Amino acid sequence: MDIALLPRPLKIVWHFSRLLFHSLILIILSFATVHAETYQVVRVLDGDTITILMDGQKQSILLIGIDTPEKSRKTNEPGQPYNQKATKFRVGMVLNQDVSIESYPKFDNYFINVQYIQ
What we know:
Structural class: alpha+beta
Radius of gyration: 23 Å
Helix content: 25-40%
Order of helices and strands: HEEEHEE
Strand order of the largest sheet: 1-2-3-5-4
Strand content: 25-35%
C-alpha cells in the first residue's frame, strides 16, 4: 500500500494506527517479563551443566546457548576432547557462586532442566 497516494486525513489515521499498534505491543511485552531467582551453584557436572541448590534440593541445570564437549557417561572413558578444560573453566566461573536463574520450564532428553543463568 502506497501511503503517498492517500488523502491527508487517511495518512494521519494510518500513522496513528501504526503508533497505537506498536504501543500495544510494547505494553504486552512489558507484562511478559521473566521472573528470575538466585540460587547457589553446588556442583559443575561439565562445561554446560551445573547443579544448584533449590529449596533445599539439588537440581541439575543445562545452560541455554552453551554447547561444550561432553564427558563420558561411563567411568574410565575420557569423553569428548577438551571436556575437562571446559569443565574446569565453568568451575572457575560459577562454583559456589550465586546465579540468577530465569524461569524457562523446558527439559532436555535426559530430563535435565534447561535454563538461562546470569
